[in-house]
User: Fold this.
Amino acid sequence: MASRPEEFARYRQQMNERILSVDNQVVRRFFALDKQTYADSEHLSAQTKELLGLVASLVLRCDDCIAYHLAQSRKQGLTPAQIFEAMSVGLVVGGSIVIPHLRRAVDFLDQLESDETPAAEGCELHVQSQSAGESSASR
Assistant:
């Protein structure tokens, strides 16, 4: 049986490929824009951007987005302690309504830590699509 991170990555990849199989320039451009947004830049590192995405996802209470940014944060080399500190910011900004999402986030992070296979890229839309030649994200 696949772990939650593996199943999340598989489903996201499958659905992103399906979405990108439709000839829709707006969707493709959004995916590409998202990819560019989370790349290293002159002023912010990809690590910092992933933490910003994680905090925003917690405040917006998007579990798929939270899972994506957790996986990407680990892929970027952030430690669980760094990730947890960012999640504490999301909790303070978002308030107590964030707590159920924080619980699921910590569970997902624990599963990532115990899972030997890396989670695939992409928060619903945050995914690289090999077939479409463009990539990015979905929240």
Observations:
- The first helix runs from residue 4 to 20.
- The helical segments are 4-20, 25-37, 46-60, 63-75, 80-94, 99-114.
- Residues 116-139 have pLDDT under 50 and may be disordered.
